[in-house]
Amino acid sequence: QLAGHVQAIDERLASLRLFRASAAALVIADAFERDYAILKRRRGRLDFEDLIVRTAELLTRSAASSWVHYKLDQGIDHVLIDEAQDTSPRQWQVMRQLVEEFFAGAGAREVTRTVFAVGDEKQSIYSFQGASPRMFADEQRAMRQRAEAAEARFEEVRLTQSFRTAADVLRAVDTVFADAENRKGLSSGDEPPAHQTARGEASGLVEIWPVYQAEEQPQSRDWLQAIDYEPANSPANRLARRIAAQIGDWIGDPIAHKGAVRPLAAGDVIVLVRKRSGFVAAMAKALRDAGIPVAGADRLVITDHIAVKDLMALGRTVANFEDDLSFAAVLKSPFFDFTDDDLMGLALSRERHEPLSLGLRRICGPEGLARVPEFVPDETTEAFLAKCRYALTRLDELRARSGFETIFAFYARILGPEGGRARLTRRLGSDSGEVIDAFLDLALADEEAGEPGLDAFLARLAAAPPSIKREMEQGRGEVRIMTTHASKGLEAPVVFLVDPGSAPFSHAHGARLMEWPDMPGLVPGMSPGFLWRAAKDLENDAIADLKEAEKARAEEEYRRLLYVGMTRAADRLVVCGVSGVRGPNENSWLQRAQLALSAECEPVTDADGATIAWRFGAAGTGDKLAAAIPPQPDAPAPLDLSPLPPEILPPRPLSPSSAGEGTEIAEDDAIPPEVAPAFVSPVLSQTGDPSFAIRRGLAVHKLLQVLPEMAADAREAAARRYLATAAPEMRPGDHDALVASALAVMDDPEFAPIFAAGSRAEVPVAGEITLAGRSYRVNGTIDRLAVTATRVLIVDYKTNRPPPASLAEVSPAYIMQLALYREMLKPLYPDRPIEAALLFTEAPRLIALSEAVMEQAVARRRASTQSATERQENGAIA
C-alpha cells in the first residue's frame, strides 16, 4: 500500500512538471505566433492558412456574414470539390458555409443546385494539414443527412474501374491490401479494395527487388574524404545504378499508352521516394552517368544545389578575396575549371599563411614561372599559368563591377552574356537551369525590396534558404524523381517505388506540442488542448496515450502512401529499397509488398543463378506489343531553302537618362554622328570606366530613395549602416559627406513638396513618343514623382561636382531627359500642369525647368530626327 501511495505521488509530481513544461511551451508559442502575425502585417503578407482562416471567419463570425452569404448565394449554383479526401477541417468549414443555403428555404427549391465531391479515402495522405479518411466519411454522412432532410437527391458513386492501370498491376495492389494488417487505416471501413481495369487484356508487370543492405564500415576513414562522402558501394548508389541500368534497358520497349502502342521514353518513368534523402542525388547522378535525361528532384532547397553554391561562393569571393574556402570553391567551379592538382599547385606557390588570392597574384607576376611547384609537369606548366592569369583577370574585373552594379545585374551579366549559365548546365546538367532562374528571381526581389549590398544578400540567403517546387508533369522527356506525396494526381507507364527501409514513424520527428483533443474540461466548440512532448521522466498516462495514437495515425498514413505509390504505375511497377546494417524494418513498404505477393511471384535469376527479383505478372508483354508499333516513316529529305532576308528590327527603346537629344535613336537608325549630342551620362554609359563618382552617385540615389520613408531621427543611423555595407571601399570622410548631402536635401523646407506624403521614389515609366513620323518606345525611371490635386512634379537627382549655378549651365541631355518624362505623363494627367526640376544634391540646389524650355528640347529633337531621316532617304534614292 505504501509503495502504491509513493507511486501515485510520483505520478502526480510528474504531471505537475509536465503541466509547467506545457504552460511554458504555450507561452513561447503564443509569443511566437503573435510576433509572426505582426511581422506579416507589417510586410502586408498573408500565408495560405491565413486565407482559409479569414475566409471561414468572414462566413461565420463576421458582422457582415449575413450580407456575404446573401451575395454569394446569388452567384453559386454548383460546387465541385476535388481531392476531397485531403480537405482540411477549416476548408470543410468554408465549404459547408457556401452550400448551407442549398438545402434550406428558397435556396433548396428555386433551381437544381449541386455539390459534387470527388475523393478516395485510400489516398488521404495530407494529415499534416488535418485531413483524414474519417473526416471524409463524416462529411459524406453529414451531406447525406442534409440532402435527405431537404428531400434532395443524394448519390454515392463508387468508381472501381481504372482506365489507366493494367490488370496485373491492379491485381498486385488488391493482393497487397487484401491482408487485414496492410489495409488497417486504408479507409474508414475495413473492406479490402477491389479494382477492375478498362484496358481489357493489357498485361502489366510488377517486380520486387531484393533489399540493398548496408555493409559494416571500418571505424577509421580516410581524412581526405569529404564529410558527406558516399562510398560507391553504398546501398543508395548500388540501387541507383541498377535502376538507371534497368531504365536504359527498357527505353525503346513497346508500351500501350492512351490507346496507342509506342516505344517507351525517359519521360514515361517516375522514381518515387518516401522522403528527400541522399538517394535522390545518387539517383539523379546515376541517370546522368547513364546518359538518361533526368528532371532532378521535385522540391529542393535552393542553397543546397551545387550551382547556387558556386554562385554564392563567387559573390563571397569578390566581396572578400581573403575568404580562402570560397576562393578555392570558385576556382574549382565551372567558371574556372581548376582541378585538385591546379589548386594544390596554387597553394604551394604562395608564402606561408598567405591567402590563396595573394598566391594567385604572385604566380601571375613576373616571377610566376619560378613559383610553379615541381610536381606540375613541364608540358602543362604554360596551360596552368594561362588558367591562373585568366582567373585573376576575371576575378579582378568582377570585384570592380560588384562595387557599383546591382546584385541582379551583377549575376545576370555573368550568367547571360558572359556564358556562366552554359558553363554550369554543361557540367551540372540541364536541371540546374531552373535553380539558376530561381536564384536570379531572389536577387531581383532583394533589389526591388531596396535591401543593401551583395554581402547582405548572401547572408540572408544562407540564414533563411528558400525552397522551390518543380512542376513535374509528363512531357519534358525526362525521368522524374519525386516523393510519393508529390505524385498525387500523376501517373506513368513505369514507376520505381523506393523504400528507405526505416520505420514508418519515429517519436523523435513528432511535434513537440501534442494536440490533446480529449483534454478534461473541454466543451464542444472549444479548440483542443496541447501537451509538451515530455521526456521519459515526465511521461504520464495522457502523454503515453497521445504518443500511441500519433504512432498509429502515422502508420496508417504510411500504408496509404504505399497504396498511392503502387497505383501511380500504369504498366510496370518495381518495388525496391535500401536498408541499414541491421536490415529493413519489418513494416517497411518493401517487406509488406514482398510478404503479400511472394506466393504468386516467380524468381528472376541472373547468369550466375542468383535471384535478382521476384516477378508478379505476365512476362513477354513487350514481345506481344512490338508488332503493333507502326513503322516509323523515313526522315524527309532536307528542303533546299534560300536564306531569309535579314530581319527588320524595331527601333531600340529610348532611355531618357542616356538619350540626350537622341543618342539611342542615332545609334539604331544610322543618323549621322553630327546630329547626336556629345554628352552621354557617365553613370549609364556601358563603355565608361567605373569610378568613384559613379559609385557616389548611385549611393546618393539609394539614400534619397529609402530615407524619406523613415522617421527623421532614424535617418542618419540608417544611412551610415547602408553605406558601411554597400560602399565599404569609401573612406569614412566620404561617408560623412554623403550622409550630410542626403540629409541636407531632405531637411531643406524648399524641397518639402518633393518628399511630401503621397510622393513616390524610383517610379518606372514606359510609353511611346513620335519623332519624324516614327514611334519610339521609351523606358525610364523617375527618381521622385509627386502627384497632387493641382499639379504633377517630376524631380531627377544629379550629383554633379560642382553643380550648375543656373539653368543656363545645365546640360541639354538633362533637360531632354525630363522633357521626355513630361511627354509620357501628359496623356495620364491632361487636367493639371506637369512641372519638372533637377535636384543637384551637392549644393543642394533645385533648378526648375520651364514649360517652354522642355517644349524647345522636344522640338529640336523632332527637327534633328526629321533632317536625319531625309538624308537617309536621299542617300537611298541616290
Helix-strand blueprint:
Elements: H1 2-43, H2 48-60, H3 65-73, E1 78-81, H4 89-98, E2 114-117, H5 133-149, E3 161-162, H6 167-176, E4 196-197, E5 205-208, E6 212-213, H7 235-250, E7 254-257, E8 260-263, E9 269-273, H8 278-289, E10 294-297, E11 299-301, H9 306-319, H10 324-332, H11 340-349, H12 356-363, H13 368-371, H14 378-402, H15 407-415, H16 420-428, H17 432-448, H18 454-463, E12 467-469, E13 479-483, E14 492-499, E15 513-516, E16 529-532, H19 541-566, E17 569-579, H20 589-597, E18 602-605, E19 611-617, H21 621-626, H22 656-659, H23 663-668, H24 692-706, H25 715-726, H26 732-747, E20 760-771, E21 774-787, E22 792-798, H27 812-825, E23 834-840, E24 845-849, H28 851-877
Parallel strand pairs: 1-2, 3-4, 5-17, 6-17, 9-13, 9-14, 10-13, 14-17, 22-23
Antiparallel strand pairs: 5-19, 7-8, 11-12, 15-16, 18-19, 20-21, 21-22, 23-24
Structure description:
- The chain is α/β, with parallel strands linked by helices.
- The chain has four domains: 48-159, P-loop containing nucleotide triphosphate hydrolases (Rossmann fold); 206-215 and 232-298 and 475-519 and 531-626, Rossmann fold (3-Layer(aba) Sandwich), CATH 3.40.50; 301-469, PCRA, domain 4, CATH 1.10.486; 656-876, Lambda Exonuclease, Chain A (Alpha-Beta Complex).
- The chain has 28 helices and 24 strands.
- Helix 4 links the parallel strand 1 (78-81) and strand 2.
- Helix 25 packs antiparallel against helix 26 (732-747) and helix 27 crosses helix 28.
- The longest helix has 42 residues, at 2-43.
- 32% of the residues are buried.
- The model is unreliable at 620-629 and 661-690 (pLDDT under 50).
